[in-house]
Amino acid sequence: MAYKVPTHCKDCSVNNACFQHLTAEELNEVATEKGCSVFKKGQVIMAEGSKPSGVFCINRGKVKYTRLGSEGRDHIIRLGKEGDLIGYRSVLANESLSASIVTLEETHTCFIPKSLLFDFIKENNGFSLSLMQQACHDLGESGKMITNLAQKNVRQRLAEVLLMLNAKFGANEEGHLNVKLSREEYANMVGTATETLIRLLSDFKQEGLIESKVKMIRLLQPNKLAAIAQLNDF
Prior knowledge:
By secondary structure, the chain is an alpha+beta fold. Helix content is 42%, strand content 21%. 30% of the residues are buried.
């Protein structure tokens, strides 16, 4: 049976802290004005350089934020999952999108118009504070990735990316990371050539740190990966 986004927001199971602050009346407004869409794997939801007229809430699925580099290659700067709001920073700043948002799998979304978002910001303090906290968190995550690219070697960066994916998406019933990425996508996140990424994954596998099969990776020794990544607070 095909998945269908709940008609009313109060029946939605996605966990977004911002919407938990909305009143029943405000949730009714969202349910009335939202537009639901389904995007196939690999589709662009929002394009770099465009100016969004609202935000998307991911109801089901996963996305990647990609930015086109000076050498013409896409760089993955962040990932998104169920419950995430996408495009909100550009809407708040009245700026064009600094990255494209592309689906990693079939993704179900709800579009919320800019005017409605600003109404909630003006009238609901809890919603405003939660949105600001989310913006600060996302900015911190992006800053951390930029710092790691500059200060850590490729082996350290790969170990940290694997741990980050495990923290964000968890593992499926078989224990594999609950997100499917190609070797090229891993390379884009780590900031290296695909050939180097494949060699490092092979090294990790031989060292007993991971198991890998096609697009599936299982972390066997997360503490050792954390030591490689120099994560003191793991």
